[in-house]
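Backbones bend. Our protein:
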Amino acid sequence: MLRLVVLVSLALLGQCFETPRIVGGVESQPNAWPWQVSLQGLSGNWYHTCGGTLVHPRWVMTAGHCVDFPGLVYRVALGDHNIYETEGPEQYILVDKVVVNKKWSGDLSVGHDIAMVRLAQEAILNDKVQLALLPQKGEILSNDYLCYATGWGYTFNGGEVSPTLQQTPIRTVDYKTCSRPDIWGYYVKDIMVCAGGDGFVSGCQGDSGGPLNCEQDGKFYVHGVTSFIYAGGCRFYMKPTVWTRVSAEIDWINEVITKG
């Protein structure tokens, strides 16, 4: 089953969080984001559940809420573009271990919505499959920084999974702004990254776990793991998409990889 559930209800404001997908984007060039993966579950057939980022030949970074299904068999599709077709460069590798950040409680507003999944064998790195670059510990992007959100999620409210990888330019919203009472208030934390909220582009149900790609010095770095959107709808005005901030989790990521 596809990850589409409302995860948290905030009765006080009549708000709730929902897991996201790309809205307002365009189809990317095949393998333009070679660290982007599709995390897939097995229920009769393999199906796309979430995005993810290849950070080591044996490890993929995704969202904690993407792996909240004990007993589900996962695999990762690397080098993929159209998830409904086999086009040649794909590598399909089973997941043999899931490590969820111990600070992830299931409450999206608390944060630490991040997990690492270990591949049963090393990914073969080539021009279609590459490791992501990650930011330095504690690094925070400036307000209105241009990044790109990517994913196979819904392209409009109530739509369907996009067969091809989508991308959209999206600008960051700094913590001071994103935590204003008229935007996200205290439901966002400084260990998160906000972007969008213009009413035109956003994540939407199911882009969860995928990367926020931000260019620095001619190279793209993955600064976020897609976490949640406003349940009132994708690309909701003044409700930016929210990512787990990777630079706040670097020590944990490195620890997981080191322990193997």
Observations:
- The mean pLDDT is 88.
- The CA atoms of residues 181 and 239 lie 11 Å apart.
- The domain at 36-131+250-259 is CATH 2.40.10.10 (Thrombin, subunit H).
